[in-house]
Amino acid sequence: MHPPLDSADAVVKDRRDAVLTNQPSSVLGRLALGQVWRQPLPALGWSDRLLVRGINVFSRRQIRAVHGLENLTGTPDPMVVALNHSIRRETVLVIGLLVFLRGGRLIHIWSNWVFNMVPGLAWMLRRAGTMAVVAKPPRIKLLNRLKDFYVKPQSALDQARNHLVAGRTVGVFPEGSLSPDPRRLLSGHIGMARLSLMTGVPVVPVGIRFPDADLDMPIPESAIMEVHVGAPLRPPAITGPRPGPAVAREWHAAVMTRIAELSGRSWEARAKGRDRHVPAAEA
Fold first, then answer.
1. Under 8 Å between Cβ of 134 and 147
2. C-alpha dihedral, 61 to 71 to 82 to 44, nearest 10°
3. Is 103 left (phi over 0), alpha (psi -120 to 50) or beta?
4. pLDDT at residue 64, as a whole number
5. Least confident stretch, 147-151, 216-220, 262-266
6. Which of 41-45, 48-52, 156-160 has the lowest mean pLDDT?
């Protein structure tokens, strides 16, 4: 017997079980293996097509459905794709699937620079157009001497902004850390909101659900996923090159509230001493 749900948990369960009021009706089921190998990917060269198809041979096993795909494919580049982040596999499988469904148009995400030293993985990250950033110092201190070979002098925010200004789409996990809690999202960081406000590009919120997950247990890496894509959110206009903290926090809250709805969880603003989890760039 599970203990009775408190009021907040009951809301989460209702969100998981109910059809979202703003959810588009279109649903793409699990990819067929033939579709993975035959669907055109005109935005990619042959080696990158092979990489994306290979990723989706695996994604089709763990991603059951995509809801509201037209909100992604019908929104022109550039945009900020903002997703919740519960397991490490999302970084490859969900992003790889969305790139596939966009005809091969990349979604540029941040990754820990240390991964660029791993043979094979480094090649995949370069082909995916990821942005190498410093998440935290590596355990082997000697590796810090090699950091400048892999990390650009620009800040992570400036790298992402440059992509958006050039017309390329950026993907962000605004929680900033892995959050395996099946009931609640982390409060997150406002970098995603600042990016959207500074460039004026819309945010496409994406909620990743785990319909078979136990509400009383952390979400396991092997959990089946459903991807819910919401309608693009247009940022308010700002005066000056950068938004003030209050404006950024308000826009961040609006986006996170929508991601919470799409992912079937609750969300609240940061409370002191909370949200200390594994950095998302480690995923």
1. yes
2. 60
3. left
4. 96
5. 147-151
6. 156-160
What does the block give as tokens for 154? 């620009």
Nearest to 50 by CA among 109, 1, 104: 104
Determine the length of the chain.
283
Instruction: Report the sign of the C-alpha dihedral through residues 107, 128, 68, 205, in that order.
Output: negative
Domain boundaries, the chain: 31-112+154-272
Banded pLDDT at 277 (limits 50, 70, 90): very low
- CB neighbourhood size of 263 (10 A): 27
User: pLDDT: is 140 or 175 the higher one?
Assistant: 175
The count of other CB atoms within 10 Å of the CB of residue 277 is: 15
Average pLDDT over residues 221-227: 96
Residue 138 confidence class, pLDDT cut points 50, 70, 90: low
The pTM (predicted TM-score) of the whole model is 0.84
Q: Which residue has the tokens 């395996």?
A: 180
CA distance 133 to 153: 10
Q: Which of 177, 181, 172, 178 is nearest to 267 (CA)?
A: 181
Q: Which amino acid is at 144?
A: N
Question: In the numeric block, which tokens belong to residue 130?
Answer: 């990821």
> At CA 161, angle to CA 50 and CA 55, rounded to 5?
20
